[in-house]
Structures are given as C-alpha cells and as structure tokens.
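job 3f2a | input accepted
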Amino acid sequence: MKKKDLALFLGMMSGDGCLCISNSSRGYKDYVVEFYNTNISKMELFSDLFSKLFDSPGRINYPDREGRKRIYKFKKYSKEIFDKIAPLGIPVGLKKEKLRVPQMIKESSREEKIAFFEGFLITDGSIRKKGDILFHSSSKVFLEELSTL
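job 3f2a | predicted structure (149 res):
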C-alpha cells in the first residue's frame, strides 16, 4: 500500500466520505464506506484509489434527482475494510465536530501531507482567482489542524 495513495484517500474521505453503521432489513449491522461527489472524475479517482488500496471494488450509482445536479454515490459494504479505515482517523457517523487530521498524517512525510491536503482540497475546498484557498468543514479543530499541516 503506497502511503501517498493512502494519504490522498484519507483526505478525500475527510471531505466527501463517511463511515456508516446501519441495520440491514434482516436485523444485521451493515458497515458501509461511502463517498459522494457531483464530479464523475473525482468519483472515479476515489473508486480507483479504493480498489488499489483495499484490493476490492466499490459500487458507483447516480440516482437522478429531477431539477437538481446529479450526485454520484460510491458504496462498499465490508466490515473488514471498514475496520481498516476507522482506526486511521476517519470518524464513524457524522463527522461534524469529530473530524481531525489523522495522527498518521501529522507524523508523515511532506509528500504524504501534501497528498492528504490535496484530497481534502479537491473535495471540500477551492482556490479562488486571487490564489486564496477556501475550505468547507463544520469542524473548527480540523481546519485549525489543517492550517498547521
């Protein structure tokens, strides 16, 4: 597993991804890795990274929403993969106020920190014409940690 790919993946998960536990219709728990984006090329990048890192493909679908922009959804049901991602620092459930820069990223090489930063930038950030970088996150602590990264 390439650390740079993992860092990019974690950055994207920090932005538009989530780890969810839900109850199936048969009463079992489902452990789901999800990623949402309106840009198909970002969705394909995430899906390719996921497949490369975990040697397992996910599923992309895109239910049309009348009068609204198409949103692509990546889903993978796998407790094994879920259990590999959660300890890396991605919160389970709502990320609001729980999201932090993963410790492994804080301790990683400059190249890996840049990959993480890029992953978050392409999902929940933007670069304005003046060169300013803007990020969108409801976790103030995450944004503060990102600024020191």
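job 3f2a | The first strand starts at residue 17 and ends at 23.
job 3f2a | closed
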